[in-house]
Amino acid sequence: MIFIVVKFTIRPERSGEWLDLVQDFTRATREEPGNLFYEWSRSVDNPHQFVLVEAFEDAAAGEAHVNSEHFKTAMAWMPGLIASTPEIVNVEVPGRGWSAMAELSPRD
């Protein structure tokens, strides 16, 4: 599995609309055959920073993603909204998605 985390810092005057603006891109990515998950969160420390957690089945699925029309379209308009170059972690890990945390479970 290709596991990716990206921090996007958005221009303050545009951060309020970021999640609406990436909605079509997010939907299209989630519909890709090799996408396992694609989830946005807002930073609790910086209201203008969004964290994207995503995973793809393998390198071929990741390559298909970056070659997709919706990816290319997003890369064309995103530079006008970001305040800095996004930071990324991109690693290959065993498995095919989330696992249960062994150290914690709900009480009865």
List keywords for this structure.
alpha+beta; Alpha-Beta Plaits; four-stranded antiparallel β-sheet; oxidoreductase; AI-2_Isomerase_LsrG; monooxygenase activity; Dimeric_a/b-barrel; 28% strand; 108 residues
Tell me about this structure.
This protein is α+β, with helices and mostly antiparallel strands. It has a single domain (7-92), classed as Alpha-Beta Plaits, CATH 3.30.70. Helices cover 27% and strands 28% of the residues. The protein contains four helices and four strands, in the order E-H-H-E-E-H-H-E. The chain has helices at 18-21, 23-30, 59-66, 69-77; strands spanning 2-9, 35-42, 49-56, 87-92. A four-stranded antiparallel β-sheet has the order 2-3-1-4. Strand 2 (35-42) and strand 3 form a beta hairpin. The chain is globular and about 45 Å long. The mean pLDDT is 97.
What is the succession of H and E elements?
EHHEEHHE
Based on DSSP secondary structure assignment, what is the total number of beta strands?
4
**What's the Cα radius of gyration?**
15 Å
Helix content: 25-40%
Instruction: Please identify, by name, the CATH architecture.
Output: 2-Layer Sandwich
What is the number of helical segments per DSSP (H or I, 4+ residues)? 4
* Largest β-sheet summary: 4 strands, antiparallel
Shape by Cα distribution? globular
Strand fraction equals: 25-35%
Organism: Streptomyces luteosporeus
Keywords: Monooxygenase, Oxidoreductase
Protein name: Quinol monooxygenase
GO molecular function, one term: monooxygenase activity
